[in-house]
Amino acid sequence: MSQRNENPLPVYGLQARSFDDSVVAQVGSGKQTNYFGNPPSIPHIDEWPTVSESDPLALGVHKCRPLKGFDRLTPYVMRDIDSILRECLEESKDGGFLLIVGDSTAGKTRSLYEALLKVVPQARVIAPSTGGSVVEVLREVRSKPQSCVLWLDDLERYLGPGAVEPFLVGELIRSGVCIAATLRAERYEAYIPQAEKIACASSDTASQHVARVGLQVLNIAELIEINRSWSNHEIEAAEECDDPRVEEAVKRHGPYGIAEYLAAGPPLHSEWKRALRANGNPRGHALVAAAVDLARAGVIGPIATSTLRDLHEIYLDRAGGSLLRPERFEVALKWASDVRYGVTSLLMPAGEGTWRPFDYLVDTVSRENVDFPEGDAVWKAAISITDSHWQRFSVALAAFETDNKKVAEEIWIDLAAEDDGHAAFHLAELFKERGEVERQESWLRSSVAAGNKQSMLLLGELLIEQKLIGEAEEWLIRGLALGEADCAWHLGKIRASVGDVSGAEELWQTGLDMGSQGAGTSLGISLARRKGHGSAIAVFREVVEKFNKPGAQFNLGRALMGAGDTENAKIWYRKAANEGYAAAQINLGMLHAEEGDYAAALELLMKSVEAEDWMGVCHAADIQSLLGNIDEAFRLYQLSFENGHLHSAEHLGVLCLRSRDIPGAKRWFRMARKRGSEAASWNLAVMQLAQGFPDEQLLAVCSWPL
Predict the structure, then answer these.
(1) How buried is residue 582: exposed, middle or buried, by Cβ count under 10 Å (0-12/13-18/19+)?
(2) Out of 141, 285, 348, 484, which could bridge 453 as a Cys pair, Cβ 3.0 to 4.6 Å?
(3) 116, 89 Cβ separation under 8 angstroms
């Protein structure tokens, strides 16, 4: 074996060495993993087609309804993401990873293909059949370096042990490969939020491989999201198309996207739903329902005919069984797998004797939040057909996310018994949700024993709540050493609590550099207190640039406001307000009120009712009062007070005084005083001294700084 790369390649905590016929990976000082063997063969690189020669249908672009005299695909209609997509491809064409995320049939694959056709038409393209073949792609590229694209449509099919993992992605990028991938939004959401919670540090179990894949592979990618629903601009572009199929889609797509209408998603879904009737295709419907629910239950791979034969009876019986006069099994399977509209089928072949449901159906049923059948038959079937540790974990995650937590608990307990710290972490989260602190702590300790750095963070947080600061620091320091950025945030808070502000700020800066938004926020707030808002602006700008979350935008706006830069503060408040961030809506609304634009102020502040932000509701009442809408102001103040906002009672007292209702004023001030309002105590004293109606200017009414 001759070594190609003398130096190990560190990628996100992993080390890898590449050889002529294998790649070896290692995590920390743990066990080495060799990636070689007999993956499905791929052709020599000289035999790969160029992008311009490739068949878009073979790459996964959905077919359209065939129409005599027209191409198999409709002319491409420009999407809003195209400019940024092509710009990112320009940057990635000599080595990079581009991922488009969106709903099924949103147009992900077609948009990515068209971008490649525009930017790198002469690049070689390869679409391996399995994740295991990707190592062969790397060897081929190194044997004869040239411009090439690794095409991974439906990326989840390639993730897993011995397949697409962080070190391999890093090697491909270093070798000049442009990785172009798509991922359904449902699968992305299943990977990323969980992976951010469960990323593990040192163990090499199969499930922890998948945890790293979820966090690290997807985080390496340049992410672009595509909307299922088309914008007005996109629809206008479609209206210019002279293909009758596009013209029909523009006229009839209704609430659906143009792309999903063209891919026959809505009519296929409707046909499937209509089949559940007497003398229809009730057994066929049940077969498809079983496949859809297995996919929703976390099954990623193909589903055997025998599994569908056993499971579908539950769906058939639930709908009426023999009363529906169901067709024979063979007839039902043929109906479910027949190609419709020349496009696709309800059950799609996935290999000899195996199937997978049309993914549009899975997404639609998931969006509709349809319940699983009663009992655990679907989950038992899902577990029975999973053949690896990480696939069982996928089923457990799906069970947890669909509120079948007993199923998830049982799977995780079995996995934790195999020393899976990843499963122990989730069990800790489950018992935290139930308020069972002792069991939460027990599973956290099992998880940290397996090297799970996220559990080190959570155990540290739990110990801080228990006032066990010394032990908390020990676990947070260990987690920080393994790269858990939020550990620096909590260590900084411990330093600040004992008066070591400079030590706290140093830790928060470390946390921000490592990717902790909380650490960056604490650093900015600390600097603002010590040195003024101006010194915090640079920190909050960095937090916005790194995370671009509404809370970060709000904090930047507040720092700018504190520094006297009202116009720029309004820009950032508006960005956060548009994302539904209540505090930004309130502050921006009050700025509009100060400028005399009460209509704009009220529009923003009334959103506080839906957001249940009762301080904002109190401010909305302030504006209604200024506009003379006393009844509405009274209603809003009362709503705010009933939901715990103390100061609204002070305003209610003032409104009563203005309407000459002294008993009412006293009643509201007394209620506020009873809840600890010093202003209400003052107001009652002023009323007593005045022996009637006091000068309103003498009254104390709470106001809030922006």
Answers:
(1) buried
(2) 484
(3) yes
